[in-house]
Amino acid sequence: MDNRQIIPVRSQWILVIWMLIASLGVFLFCIWVMMDALQFDSKYSLIAIMASLIGIIFGLYLFLHALPGFFKKGRVIFEIVTGPDGRIQSQKKSVLLKDIKDITIDRKGFTPRSIFFEDLIIYTQQNKTVKIPTYNMVNDVVFRKQIIEYILPYMSVHAQESYKAKFTDFPGERENKIE
Fold it and tell me: Hey, which CATH number is domain 76-172, 2.60.120, 2.40.10, 2.30.29, 1.20.120?
């Protein structure tokens, strides 16, 4: 009997819309400011040109790095395959659930991408770090529930304790403390 399930982790529409507004909105607004500043009607036109140039680069950078998240098939960012040989898989990377030492959605490193975008960061038992992009379109609260329900039971005992220690109010632990 095979009790494997494939759980898609999808982007949320509201987060996709916010990313579109943030990236394209900044880009288009700064183009409008640049066009207005190029008329040199004000003594602040030079400052407006410089600020809008920075904003155009920033907005375009955000949009281009979030672009794969906008066009993922079925809005699936990555998948969780449950079961004893389960894994977390994206189109390019895959990690077995039993090999996970720690898992979090966070920023890693000091790159321009890590300043603006959070990734799913998986630390393995082999001391490797696997980063799966979330494009800031995965709801952290929903994913934390998916970790508890689908990933945690298949992690090692030490990894489970380590994950539970990160949170003071872990579901199911509160009832045991009261009794």
Answer: 2.30.29
| pTM: predicted TM-score of the whole model, two decimal places | 0.83
SS3 content of the chain, % helix, strand, coil (to 5): 50, 20, 30
For the chain, which residues make up each domain, given as ranges?
Answer: 12-70, 76-172
Q: Does residue 34 contact residue 26 with C-beta atoms inside 8 Å?
A: no
Q: What is the pLDDT along the chain (179 residues), one digit of tens a residue?
A: 467 899 999 999 999 999 999 999 999 999 999 999 999 998 999 999 999 999 999 999 999 999 999 988 888 999 999 988 999 999 999 999 999 999 999 998 888 888 999 999 999 999 999 999 999 999 999 999 999 999 999 999 999 988 888 876 666 655 554 44
